[in-house]
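Researcher: Structure prediction, please.
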Amino acid sequence: MPEFFVPMFAFVFLGSVIIVPLWFNHRHRVAGLKLLEKSMERGETLDPALLDRFGRPVLSARERARRWLNLTILSCSLAAGLAAIHFMVGESRIHANGRVEFDGPLPAAAFLLCMAAGFAVLWAVHRPKSGSGPDSE
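Model: Predicted structure follows.
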């Protein structure tokens, strides 16, 4: 029975880490749009810069690419740390049939390394091309 709780806890934790910030961001944006709607109903004049801010994406292309690169570096660092911990305290067993069984954090390190590879692909897709667009330096 305890073996069931480990993956369940991992998926619940991962889901909460992803879903909770998205939910709070959505609530914040909806509250701002409701405030804009109430001001328009009252007939107040609205600043065009404020309306433009609600109409454009929250992050620029350069900021999105930097976020993917930060996640790539963080995932690689965590994977390297878990692999180092495994080689310091973990055990690996080779069975008679040639199957290798890893105890410790090495499978989690491999998972993080695969996530880092995905983040690196997303960084490569989202990074702005040099000299193109308003985000270029």
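Model: The mean pLDDT is 80.
Researcher: Thanks, that helps.
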